[in-house]
Amino acid sequence: MSKEVTEAEAAHHGKDYHDPPPAPLLDVGELKLWSFYRALIAEFIATLLFLYVTIATVIGHKKQNAADACSGVGLLGIAWAFGGMIFILVYCTAGISGGHINPAVTFGLFLARKVSLIRALAYMVFQCLGAICGVGLVKAFMKNPYNRLGGGANEVAAGYSNGTALGAEIIGTFVLVYTVFSATDPKRSARDSHVPVLAPLPIGFAVFMVHLATIPITGTGINPARSFGAAVIYNNDKAWDDHWIFWVGPLIGALAAAAYHQYILRAAAIKALGSFRSNPP
Predict the structure, then answer these.
(1) Sign of torsion over alpha carbons 25, 27, 28, 30
(2) Where are the transmembrane segments (predicted)?
(3) In this structure, what is the dihedral angle of CA atoms 39, 45, 49, 52, given to the nearest 10 degrees?
(4) Which residues in the chain land under pLDDT 70?
(5) Rounded to two decimals, what is the model's pTM?
């Protein structure tokens, strides 16, 4: 039997889902909670593992490909490494920290008032620290190929302009953050409760698909912590010259995704206006 709720039933019984209240802008009380620091540790470790596995895959592929053009996991394998690790790590950490593992995702959720400013800033710091440590491990284990083969740093590829690279990062991050909002939407969970949806799966697939499209242009950032960690450890002039693209693009993409989901798909602006009209000051 279908569990879909008709409009008439919804009107009679009320909403079949519950939107959590907006997170406070400054929630100083979080600083007193062990769960807050546990979430920071989870974000740090998850981002460390993400960068270690993915950058090691990139360097390993380039090393094999340099010896034999037919060797290595190829673009498809690299995309799978990034998407697969996001699926695994979001699944493991979603119940502890929300499984952001990406400052752009954190920024988008902050704009939608899903997390406080204090939590958002702390997440971003720990994500970047985790990324640095993860890439540092790759360099420690694979020093010679790491230094020789680009360090997994994001750079604008030859033949592409900065504007093209910026556009690719904006669109790629939009796809990712839009998927995060859709996969975790309580309204979708209620409406599609008869179709089990494991949220980390579509999020991982979004990362996979974006990598397929964007690796040839920028190596695919869509995650400022990933780009920052690789730039810090590789420390190359070209990587630093292009680095602004991998912050500005993802943050703009996250902003656009948050606005689209909240104000177009969820009609937050119309709901707010309706509430204002029914309860005038």
Answers:
(1) negative
(2) 36-60, 72-96, 116-138, 197-217, 244-265
(3) 130
(4) 1-17, 69, 188-197, 268-281
(5) 0.87
